[in-house]
Request: fold
Amino acid sequence: MAIAGRPVAVRLRARVPALTTRVVARLLSDLPVYAELPHEEIAGDIADIVQHNLRLFADVLEHRRAATDGELAQQRDSAAQRAEEGVPLDAILTAYQVGVAMCWEETAQDAGPGDLPAVLEIMDRILVLQQQLTSAVSGAYLEARQILDSQEHGGRHALMAALLTGEDLDGFTRRTGLRPAARYLTMALALAPHPDETGAGLPRGPGAGAGAGVAARRKIRRIRTALDRFAGTPALTALDASGGTVLLPVAEPPPWEGPGGLCGLIAEATRAAGVPVTAAAETASPDGVPAAVARNAEIVDLVARTGRAPGLYRLADVLLEYQLSRPSEALRGLAGLLSPLDAKPELLHTLETYLGHGLDRRAAAAALHVHPNTVDYRIRRIDRLTGLSPARPADLQHLSAALVARRSV
Reply:
């Protein structure tokens, strides 16, 4: 196969050293991730694989055939090495595309009208080779990444299990080589269902169940992405569609509010997942993780049982509820203060709503869909039945505590 009377393969082999230098320079200028690789790697492995590809193309043209599996082994090895280095797959495929394009320019630059049959055959050969390279490189890269991700995920899972169970961490490090961070932000998350999980946002039909599963996984993936971005490293998570536990390695306890604060993290997670998120957070040393995780779970449960809005909470936000949820005889006694209302659920609901709206009778009436005078009447009935009135400060404390106690017994 010749162009302008000269065999293409012979010309290409003669131009390999100079063309290699041009291709490598183009990769460094067009692909920042390659420019960040060590110089010796650029001059060694990267230049070698470029030369190998150029000579392979010359062989393909000379013998008018596709590349063999053995001739693609070096490309597969190179792709696996780039995967270990964290070079993105799209950058690697772009690099191959750049090399193939420059090779095409080199072989066809002197073509004239009489060389059209040769040019068309060269184009066909180069497209076949590019397809082979893409397949070999992608397959090797993804296989290497799967192994690496599996090992990394397995290590993170083992570390999280050791932290949650209170395992001897010195022994764990000696056994696995994994060292815990100095501190962890422990979080408990409660995730509301997405409309697509319940079917409200999905078309009815045979695929509705599968669609709900996809929606749940998408929600969890978006939550994890927000957590990873906040921490700057993959979070240790045990999450399902309803929520779960999160451990984020931190150098110092993050601020609660403001730039880089935890309230912003929960707001971002809520936005990304498209569902309300309730969370409790506490920073702890590795030895303190089990206790902190248990407290967080209790706080999230208390928030749900007391009807509070989704958002981020800490122990200080639910001190009364937390203390009153501890088992004791006093707890049952407090809950019993409202036993006269057991047969009057509308009165109990009115009391909860009235207290929840800060003793604002009009706001409570609007929430209950009744007239404000009805709220006043029901509050007077509660006073007659229990001997306690929200209008008296001492009674208000007992009524608030009694409501919390009823939810805890």
